Amino acid sequence: MAKRMAISVLGLAAAVPVQAAGTGPAGSAQVMGVPMQIIVLLTALTVLPALIISVTPFLRITIVLHFLRQALGTQTTPSNQVLVGLALFLTFLIMQPVADRVYAEAWEPLERGEITVAEALHRSADPLRGFLLRYVREKDVALLLELAHTPAPDSPEQLGLKILVPAYVLSELRTGFQIGAVLFLPFLIIDLVVASVTLSIGMVQLPPVMVSAPFKVLLFVLVDGWNLVVGSLVRSFY
After folding, report:
1. What's the mean per-residue pLDDT of the chain?
2. Inter-axis angle of helices 225-235 and 161-200, to 10 degrees?
3. Residue 5: pLDDT band with limits 50, 70, 90
4. CA 230 to chain CA centroid, nearest Å
5. Max CA pair span of the chain
6. N or C: which end of the chain has fewer CB within 10 A?
7. Residues 121-145: pLDDT tens digits?
8. Is the bond preceding 57 in cis, omega lying within 30 degrees of 0?
9. CB proximity list for 57: less than 8 A, separation 6 or greater
10. Could you report the per-residue pLDDT of 208-227, keeping only the tens digit for each?
11. CB-based contact 110:124 (threshold 8 Å)
12. d(CA 108, CA 153)
């Protein structure tokens, strides 16, 4: 799966065509040798973390999980490593259809020598473009087109990745903050109620957060909060 995820971002990671290691018969496509395959994969892996963060569901998931932890008031529980690991595996789950399509349409024909490296990169970019178009906002695309001084294309499928990627990041930031604000509301109500009660009975020396924290955790456990949050996040991408 990790290999397919690395291959699926070759359309973004590679800015220039890579020459194949071996040559086939005259008029046939060049066959990429094993050393060149390793070089291409290592090149993709160097930018893979940034691409996973910015052009996958990882961005929205991490923002929502961070807001959830802040709303619960549990400070560092769960730890950053746990939240990032959960977000990463959920990202693999959501992006698996895209990675499988890239692997089948671009990487396998390239391994068989049926297409060139440049054509494989072009094919690998198409599934990524289709995924980004599903979640990008028209307003953000218009802003990026204006900033890049680029005329609007005739159809969304003609948008370049240099426009789609930052527009997708802006759209996901907005969506993540919207979901985080909604998650905050029930826990904010608990904080307000506890603060009012403690103030009314004169418990001014006891921080309301210490009293409300067990109630918030108990409420989250009773409603099976992790199941609801993770389920809603994954379904939001389908």
Report:
1. 78
2. 160
3. low
4. 14
5. 90
6. C
7. 777 777 888 888 888 888 888 888 8
8. no
9. 90, 91, 94, 95, 172, 233, 237
10. 677 778 888 888 888 888 89
11. no
12. 31
CA distance 99 to 96: 5
CA distance 212 to 215: 5
Contacts of 92 (CB under 8 A, 6+ apart): 1, 5
For the chain, counts of helices (H) and of strands (E)? 11, 0
First to last CA, the chain: 20
Collect all residues with Cβ–Cβ distance below 8 Å to 70 and sequence separation of at least 6.
184
Phi–psi pair at 6, nearest 5 degrees: -65, -40
Query: Please, which residues have CB within 8 angstroms of residue 105's CB and are 6 or more apart in sequence?
Result: 123, 124, 126, 127
The verdict on pTM exceeding 0.85 is no
**Which tokens is 180 given?**
């985080």
pLDDT above 60: residue 31: no
Rounded to whole angstroms, how far apart are CA atoms 113 and 125? 19
* Alpha carbons 158 and 170: distance in angstroms, whole number: 20
